[in-house]
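Subject: mismatched residue count in predicted assembly?

I count 1093 residues in my input, but I want to confirm that the predicted structure covers every chain. Input:
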Amino acid sequence: MGFAMESVKHYYGKMVDLMDNIGATIGIYLSNPLELSEFYTFIVRWIFPVLAVLIFFRCTLPLLRDRGYNQIWGYLDTKNGYRIPLKHWENSIGRSKLSDIVINLPFISRSHAVLSYGEKGWIVTDLGSKGGIKINGEMLEKSGVVQSGDTVSFAGADFLFVSAEEGHEIIEIENKLHRIINFFSTFRYRKTFLMILIFQLLGGLQIYFASLGEGVSGSIPIPIGLFILVECIYFFLLSRFSQKYLELELLIFFLCGLNLFIVAAVYPGQLMKQTIAIILGIIVYAMIQFIIKDVGRGRKLKYILVFCALILILLNLTVGESRFGAKNWIDLGFITFQPMEFVKVAFVLAGTATLDKLLTTRNLTAFIGFSGICIGALIIMRDLGTSVIFFTAFLVIAFMRSGDIRTIALISSGAALGAFAVITFLPYVASRFEAWGNVWEYADTIGYQQTRTMIAAASGGFLGVGGGKGYLVGIPAADTDLVFGILCEEWGLIIALTAVMSIIFLSFLVMFLMKGCKSSFYAISACGAASIYMIQTALNVLGSLDILPLTGVTLPFLSNGGSSMVVCWALLAFIKAADERQRPALLDGDEEDEIEEDEINVTAEQSSRGKYEDEDYDYKDEDDEERAVLLR
Amino acid sequence: MKILTKRAYALLGLSVLLIAGIFVFIIKYINNASDWVQHPTNKHLFINGQLQTTGKIFDRKGETLLQTVEGVHKYHSDLTVRKAVMHAIGDSYGNIVTSAQVAFGDRLSGWNLVNGAYRFNAQRYKPGSDMTLTLDAEVCAEAYKAMNGRKGAVGVYNYKTGEIICMVSTPTFDPENRPDIMGNPDKYEGVYINRLLSAAYTPGSVFKLVTAEAAIETIQEIDSRTFECRGEKIIDGDRVTCPTSHGNITFKQALANSCNVAFAEIALEIGSSTLQKYADKAGFNSSYKVDGISTFVGKADISDAEGGELAWAGIGQYSNTANPMNFMTYVGAIANDGVRVSPTIIKNHNGISSLLSGLVSKGDRVIAKETAAILEMMMRNNTIEVYGERNFEGLELCAKSGTAEVGGGLTPHAWFAGYMDRDDCPLAFVVIVENGGSGSKVAGSVAGKVLRKAVDRILIE
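Triage response: the counts match. Full output below for your records.
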């Protein structure tokens, strides 16, 4: 009680103090000549974090709304009238629970066959089963074409194969999150886009005002305006001509906007170059998406890109130039770029394989060879950070390919030994590790960048001091290695974390899309791309904050750098390609309230149908003996 | 595709690691951002290495002790006050690590987690970042004058509320006109250290309070015992001496006359492990916090002491050291019926911290109430019988002096610690004068001057 009284007294006293102080405060505010831009920052620094968080949720939640409508590409009919739908271009068949089509009969092998659709039509491939495969009674050697109406017999279990017309029927993949996420599904992407535009216009103004006194402000409006224009055109085209979800691109546009603000604060003169890099990135993104729409074309692209990558590596090793201690630049006179960035695209593609290859050969020799060349070249170039990126991506892809934890563990421990040797024998690497964890002891030498990043991050608080008003921009490599610090300082911790979470979201999206992928080609490339984003983000953000050693890699979509930006967009194409889903048509509407009602009805209908169908082919998901008997 | 869905968990593992790393950062950020931001290279808050405070520091009477005018630090107008409170306020270059400028720099600079270092319109003054300290500039000045150029420390605090009224450490300097410190290493020996908070001295006889506490609780009928002092006693070959032979004396007289022989016997009777326990309870071997500023640890490693060593430990001359601030709060606990109130130096806590300090218990019991009463009676007796009531007239002084031998042929350190048993002025104090000589005469006279000033100042509040 006494304490309560004390508190009341205390706060009353504070109130009185505050009243007294208001007059003084106003006087003090006006003692400096009041600038309009100061007022602007004072207000918008509260708006930015709110907008950023809203944009983040409006972009991510709709993408997790449904697991997608799998198209049915064909059926396997049993004699007693059951239809098993073929939901992918590549379907594994076997007794194992991990097969796409589980046939729980004792004489079927665990991984029996793969039924895949390609240029030559449907092909069934034997995975070395004991019982073998017969098509229309003829024993199959290794693989063979099946046509609609053929009888396919897996070790004596007969099925009638019926191919469906493309997109004949769609079924929804069940989604446990559905109910929760459905609540947010009414987010209209147009409104989300509008928010992004508002964020970027207000942010652009903030940066422009902040630069007024420095004589560089002239170079700011045009590139940012150009970027917003391109963004609008892209959005217009896609919302008219594409049925896919748009939120992925919107999220990346948001990140690219932040990227331009960072570049404007550090090197206003490079803003135009960076905007052009973003535009190039978008073009590459669209092109790769178009090419890999067809898996056959994608495979050809893989060989071409791997060949180009080898040439790039060779060029880099011969005519490369050193910057910041790593020999990873090529200067062509009119343009300079980092070849190893582009090799990342080829690297991800090199790891892909279709399911039949994946399950038959299990041969990783070619991929291991290519990875060895890339990583070896990077070590020669002294680009430690990028070699870690390649190695981690290699581990993820190799695991996707082989599923063999023991081999991966073996490779990792080998690499750990190698890394230890490298750290011990190369002094320039060792010095980085010396600073790791003790940067404050070396605050002005080897811990310089990290301590300045932390000081800047702390100075920004949750809301930031305002775009273009930070001091971290004067530190070497602030625009690439320390961008997280710039974001924290100028735009605040909330926006910085939102940006990082946006990148992390990409890997959750990929996980979410896995089940609905048509082909393992898309599944593996999407995972490879996402793992490159993850490891780069970890090395960059955590490195600049002394949680990991500082290695000097770029932060995807946020660091200054043309090569990096284009490649990030190129990798995004692999993630986009894994997303087969179409956005619900009702989202195109403008008036939210009216549609909401309809939507609830539609959803109810869909879910009831989904439920019915689930029951319908439950037999293949469960090893229920009764049902197995039924099959016979 | 099912098989790939399973294998894609490798990717999930990678992103979970990344998220874990981000969490580590967030936790570090919440805990340490206020330290990071105070790096002198931070251009948001420092100009030429000087913290650009947006708040002023006041003493409890509203005297301005520090403000930033046009980017330059302005301290109190009076030179004596400036020197007296230098260790509490700090110099402009962050040399005094326990000073308000360093310890509360985040608040003084207007920094907070939400707004960071943002300053609207390059604002130079935010009323919200003002700080009022519990110090009284005049009492501090009086203490500085009473120290009269000798090295040492003076502390006075309210043992009921914990408010520190006086915190002075000498040598000191004028922060507005920095002297040549490097050129006078003797004069400015350890000048950047606040001796009250960050030093530890051999306690000498003031440690007898701890021994007495242990004796009251562990030796039956100690107050009716008499001890025979012949001026010296040999214990296991070690010679314990008194300045004069005290003859047959009671426990009470032994404390008043600070009889080494009697206390050596008492210590032997208590035993090393019990004495160790009481020393720990009295605050030795621990660091306490004054509004987040850690005090230096005073050491008492008695548990292995035997014979002569234990006897020396009981009279405060073994390897023990005492931190003046911690010892002052021990004496304060005796005054406050055995409850130790944590000292504080901030008078106007801001929102959250005032709420927290309200919730946290006001003090811990470190001495049994009955024991504290007996000790109080004995300490009062010390003043009346030995230190001279007329030297401390009206102060109701309960105290213990200490003359700590430092060896090397140097004059001993003079200690004087105690409190006023007055409800209107519940103040405890500690005075240490390095190489000052007699505890009660030298340190006692400093304490008398400071306390009289403090009473005047407190009573006009």
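The first helix of chain A runs from residue 2 to 31. Marking this ticket as 'not a bug'.
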